Structure formats: structure tokens, C-alpha cells
Amino acid sequence: MEALLTLAFDNIASKDTQKIRKGLRQIEGMLAQICLSGGKSKPSTPSHRRNASAISLGEQPQQTPKKLGTLGEDLAFREFFRLQEGFEWNVCTRVADCLERLLGMSSSKGNPSLPFPYEQCLTKIRTDGQNDILILSALSNLQGLLLLHPPSRTIFGREVYMNLLLDLLDPYNCPAIQSAALLVLVTALLATPQNTRAFEQMDGLLTVTSLFKDDETTQNVKLKVLEFLYFYLMPEAPVPAVSAPNTALHRSPSKLVGAFDRRSSTVSGDDSGATKKNIRSQEEKQHMLARYLNNVEALVQDLQESAPFASVSS
């Protein structure tokens, strides 16, 4: 796994978009290998012979997602989780740094409001489109990584990484990028109150609500923003600390997955007292959101009545 990560890290650190794409696919393939179990291919019967290409397509193994409770028994997942504990092999940090470079590559192409000759316009549209695809791929990988290794969420308690997600919500980004960034933002804040406080301190609520009120924002993105606000207004609970950073890895496989969120506070160096100080009540968050959005009370009431995240919080 170290050899694969080395290749992927070298590729996503490149300025060559082809190498970046290859590196992101390598990471995606590694995550797919961990999360999916390959099924047996179905042999074609002699009475239904087809041409070679059709047979090869028909015999592709069927892959199904592994159950969360069984991940702890997977040796590849154990090795992946172990490697993520060290800075050298942490994939989230590398993908986030790659995402920052991709944003810089987009902004360095000039002011889109300036007139371009026809050929330059076509080149810019083509280049920006390819760059957007790479950004979406990086965001997809980042979301999966944060779900597979929750302690990595703590990097978004740092200003540089939280600001990266907020930059992706700017109006000049395409709706697909805005929606994907909102999903990553939810994953980054999940069960990590210190990240939520960083989000608030960096005017994240202003950024999100401005996107919601912007007339140019698509309805689909506005729906994603509304879902995010429901998530933000959920009551927070302190994350219990454990005795040592490596405790979860020595638990029985059935308990490994359940220990993820409990370990996030230990990895970041927070004790239980410090974690409780990061907690804000639902009323406090409601008042903060009311500075930027009207009728927040209706959102809270709807959240309490419908309980859309009840299964997640339980």
C-alpha cells in the first residue's frame, strides 16, 4: 500500500493535469478496493455465445459495498487506517493540498470578464472544464477519506483547509463543485465540534447563506444548502476521549468502526474538557444563523418535527 500511495502522491503533486488525474484515480481505486467486495463472474453459457467484447463486459465481476461492521476485519482497511495515523501517509492532507493547487490553476487563467479572442476563449473553456472535473474528483476522494478515517477531519480545524472548502462555495464555481463542496463540508464537521467553531469563526455561515440568497444559485444547490443548514442546527454532543491514540486499533474488529469518532478528539490532542468547551447549544447556533437568515425558527421547528438525521445521530 505504501508503494501505491507513493505513486499517487507523486502524481497529484504534479502540475501536469494528466498526472493529477491518474493520481486521483489511483486513490479512488484504493478506496474502492477497501469498500467493495468483488463477486464471482458469471460464465457465459455455450448456447449464448457472443463476440469477445460483449463476453468480457458480461463477465465483469459484480461488486457490492462491504458492510460497515465488517470493515474492521479487512486487512487492507486495517493497514490503510494504520497508515493514516502518520503525517507521511495521510491521504486527506495530500488531496486537500492538491485541491488547493487546482484552485490556484483555475484562478491563474485570467479574469473571465475580460474579452478573449475566439481561439483563446475555446482554450480557456476547455482547460477550465478539465480542471473542474479534477476538482470534483478530488472532492469525491476527500469525502470518502473523511468517512473512512474520521480522525483526519481534524485538519479542517485549521484555517487554510477550512478556507479551501469555503472558497469552493464562491459563485464563480460551477453548481456541481458547490454541491460537492457542501457534502465534504458536512463530512468535515460531522462529530467534530472544533471544526464547526472554525467554520463559524471564518464567516462560514455568511458564505453559505450568501450562496443560498444569491439569485444565480441553482435550485439544486439551494436544496443542498438547506440540507446543510438542517445539519448545522442539529444539537451537538461532546466526543468522548479514549486513553491513547492507538486504542481503537487494538479493539476487537467488531468494535473498530464504532471507535472512529471517539478517537477524533484524541488525535487532535483535545481532552474531554476542551471538547466540551467547543460545544454550542442549538439555541446559540440558531441565534448565530439568524444574523444572516430570516425565519430560522421555522427551520428549527421543521428539524425537530421531521428529525431528518435521527438515524445518523443515534
Q: Estimate the strand proportion.
A: under 5%
Helix content: 55-70%
Amino- and carboxy-terminal Cα gap: 34 Å
Structural class: mainly alpha
Tally of helical runs: 17
Give me the count of strands: 2
Structure, described:
With 314 residues, the protein is mainly alpha-helical. The chain has a domain at 1-33 and 67-110 and 117-192. 62% of the residues lie in helices and 2% in strands. It has helices at residues 2-12, 17-35, 52-58, 75-84, 91-107, 118-148, 159-167, 175-189, 193-201, 204-213, 219-232, 253-256, 260-267, 272-277, 282-290, 296-306, 310-313, and strands at 36-38, 63-65. It has a two-stranded antiparallel sheet with strand order 1-2. Helix 5 (91-107) runs antiparallel to helix 6 (118-148) and helix 8 runs parallel beside helix 11 (219-232). Mean pLDDT is 79; it is low at 39-60, 109-116, 118-126 and 240-272.
